[in-house]
Fold this sequence. Notes:
four-stranded antiparallel sheet; single chain
Amino acid sequence: MADQTMSIVWIGAGTGLTINRIRTLTGASTILTDLLALSNADKLNTWEGALVVNSFPAPVNAAYPGLQQVANLVFLCADGSTAQMRLPAPKLSIMLADGVTVDPAAIVTLVADCIGNLESPTGSLAVSFLSGRLNNV
């Protein structure tokens, strides 16, 4: 069973809002900091216990400004299951030359913060990063 769940409402420069949830063992604050550094979107509000509202969000209008473009990040967990995390409006700098595949070397801090903390739906902890790919939702 997960010890912590953080929900994030994202706002994009292009359009609308989206929400995602991160399930962790010890909390997702460092993971959220990493996601914000890698995204053109900004958090509108988050909650992991108490609701935290960002009164002045500042999303960036860049290559993937809309919340319809997400980098789907997949982690292998100890029991063989996978944990998936969506990064809305990813920065172009984290992509390989194809503009679709996430470059693992560009997200090392995020990966390090997820290993041993991010949980799959089974409650198993992430042990390695498998892949990242740009998708339209």
